[in-house]
Amino acid sequence: MKNKFALSAGLVLLAGMGLAFAGTAEKTAAPVQASANQEEAKVKEFKDILFKLVRQDEYLDEAIETLDTASTRPTTQDLSALGISLKSITKNLNHVSALNKSEFASIQPGTRLATYTNTILSYSRKVDRKAGQVGALVAQLAAKNKKAAMRDAVSSRKGGKKARGGKKLTQILEEQKAVERLAADARVLRGASRNLSATSKWLYIASK
């Protein structure tokens, strides 16, 4: 009888220990799973940032191609359209910089996220270089346009009549102002790209 009682007590004790171990395992697994879920969410967010950067990189390629392959002086409408494009890229780069800052506040070091932040940094630097290239091309365009405008202005007739080549003095001035606005847009774009590169660098450092 005593042996049966001892055996029953032992079984109860073992069962209790098993439940205790199971409870401990569940408690240990819960934080691990939560951490994994959080990391997956971060991966999704970083992929979204990369997608945005790739798009801006493509838009910059289009702007560079437009500026670099123009065989004739661009019209006021052409310059205005290009300025709108540069403003849009600037806005998007500022948005990505804001996302970088937001991620910086919550990212944990020593995870596989460093692979993504390194790619973000690489693309950010690429975008910054292209923004600089846009600025250089716009500066060249401004210099050429200024010389052409001065030549046309000298050869123009008094009273706002048409200049040589069929342009009025008012039209020449409008084009000059359009180029100046485009140059200003290019400078703002470069500022945004530099800020993006800086925030991407700090995000990568924080994730290492």
What can you tell me about this protein's structure?
The protein has 208 residues and is mainly α. Helices cover 86% and strands 0% of the residues. It has one domain (37-207): Up-down Bundle (Methane Monooxygenase Hydroxylase, Chain G, domain 1). Helix 1 packs antiparallel against helix 2.
Gap between N and C termini, in Å? Answer: 65 Å
- Share of helical residues: over 70%
State the domain count.
1
* Global outline: elongated
The succession of helices and strands, N to C, reads HHHH
How many strands appear in the DSSP assignment?
Answer: 0
The fraction of residues in strands falls at: under 5%
Count of runs of 4 or more consecutive helical residues? 4
Give start-end ranges of low-pLDDT stretches: 9-14
How much is the average pLDDT? 81
* CATH top-level class: Mainly Alpha
Largest sheet: none
- Architecture per CATH nomenclature, i.e. the level-2 architecture: Up-down Bundle
**How big is the Rg?**
31 Å
Overall SS class: mainly alpha
Task: Map the helices and strands.
Elements: H1 2-68, H2 76-104, H3 113-155, H4 169-207
Can you tag this structure with a few keywords?
single chain, 208 residues, Methane Monooxygenase Hydroxylase, Chain G, domain 1, mainly alpha, elongated
Briefly characterize the structure.
With 208 residues, this protein is an all-alpha fold.
